[in-house]
Design goal:
The protein is built from 15 helices and no strands. The chain is mainly alpha-helical. 54% of the residues are buried.
């Protein structure tokens, strides 16, 4: 929660300090950074799953560093592409991509804690990482560093957070007893795995996370193509409500994911996760509708035209949160081919937006509609599979 609140604060202050003319660039670069975090999110999920199944910290850390090297190489190649597509400077594009390798290492350490059910230590790391990422960025913005300066400062904070997270994870796992499940069996009688953990499972999980993150962020990139600078900034501010509704229930997946990865608990954990996420989503939409009149007070009068649509932005995030829960369960039981539905939804959304959407209303309406259809299909498949085909302990169903 601390990390999420810090992130929202960064965006609100950036909207105020950069102004309606300059905020869209910052928001678009943040969207790129979110997409760059896809390997990191996949890393945490895969590491947590492998730890649940008995992999040793040494094995998963070796895999983490290999993946971080691959991510760094891809980031270097993408810098000129991002600069051209978003019409930003190379330095700003590099700032958005620069934190990607450190995020992989940070998330891997979080996965070790998550898979071992060390949730208190994990909460400490998450709060520390969110603060380390946002505080330097806020300072850079306050000193007039602009979007690029803020992103570079945040990247430096992430590097520091990754170092501290590694120390916390090592001290926690070295001093803790083997994790136990609710039945009291220590570690489910597992023996530590000594074999190497490969990169391929991460790549499979990456394409699942990439589909989700792309679907949740592509509108921020499209707005700079189809809207003018002012409306693009207004839309970008509206997506703060989307992000709040999307990330607010993040703890649900974090806590239930290890149980999703256990064959004996998977089906129940998946049903519980989707139910809780749906209820939280309804609350988030109602909260956005009630709080909408306050938006111009925090961000400025220039953003008043979108206050009546904030509930729609929140609805978008709430739907995507349910989709995230369904896709997490797919990663947990290694049924990652299900991500194809999300990729199709992404293609449909981009096509419709580029062809027909020319206003804020039509853009968010398209995003909500596509997300709703995609989530309904994915959730239905996941629930049916959990009910009729529980994953065996060593299943590899792709």
């Amino acid at each position: 929660m601390t990390a999420n609140v810090a992130g929202y604060l960064l965006q609100l202050l950036a909207a105020s300090w950069l102004g309606v003319e300059g905020y869209s660039e910052f928001a678009s670069l943040l969207a790129v950074q979110l997409l760059c975090a896809v390997p990191a999110l996949a890393m945490q999920n895969v590491v947590a799953r492998e730890v649940v199944r008995g992999a040793s910290p040494r094995a998963v850390r070796a895999m983490m560093w290999r993946c971080a090297a691959l991510v760094a190489a891809v980031a270097v190649v993408l810098i000129p592409v991002v600069a051209v597509v978003l019409d930003v400077g190379v330095w700003a594009a590099a700032a958005a991509l620069g934190a990607a390798p450190a995020l992989v290492i940070l998330s891997g350490e979080q996965g070790i804690l998550q898979g071992g059910n060390h949730f208190r230590a994990l909460a400490t790391v998450l709060a520390m990482a969110g603060t380390a990422r946002v505080a330097p960025a806020l300072l850079a913005l306050a000193l007039g560093g602009g979007a690029a300066g803020a992103l570079w400062a945040g990247a430096a904070g992430i590097v520091g957070a990754a170092i501290v997270a590694g120390r916390i994870a090592r001290s926690t796992t070295e001093s803790a007893d083997p994790p136990t499940d609710d039945s009291g069996d220590a570690g489910n009688s597992r023996e530590p795995m000594t074999k190497t953990v490969g990169v391929l499972p991460v790549l499979r999980a990456v394409q699942v996370q990439a589909a989700l993150m792309a679907l949740s962020s592509v509108d921020l990139i499209v707005v700079r193509i189809v809207l003018d600078e002012v409306d693009a900034s207004r839309y970008s501010l509206g997506t703060i409500a989307t992000k709040i509704a999307f990330w607010l229930p993040q703890a649900v997946g974090v806590v239930l994911y290890p149980r999703m990865a256990q064959p004996t608990h998977s089906a129940r954990a998946i049903r519980d996760a989707l139910s809780v996420l749906s209820v939280i989503g309804v609350v988030a939409v109602l909260g956005a509708a009630l709080a909408a009149p306050l938006a111009p007070l925090f961000a400025g009068a220039d953003y008043a035209p979108i206050q009546g649509m904030l509930w729609l932005f929140a609805l978008h995030g709430a739907i995507l949160a349910v989709l995230q829960g369904a896709l997490l369960s797919a990663i947990a039981v290694e049924r990652t081919a299900l991500a194809a539905v999300t990729w199709i939804g992404l293609a449909v959304e981009v096509t419709l937006m580029l062809a027909f959407a020319r206003t804020i209303e039509s853009l968010i309406g398209t995003a909500v509609s596509v997300a709703a259809v995609t989530t309904t299909i994915v959730a239905a498949v996941v629930l049916r599979a959990a009910r009729t085909h529980p994953a065996p302990a060593d299943s590899v169903l792709h």
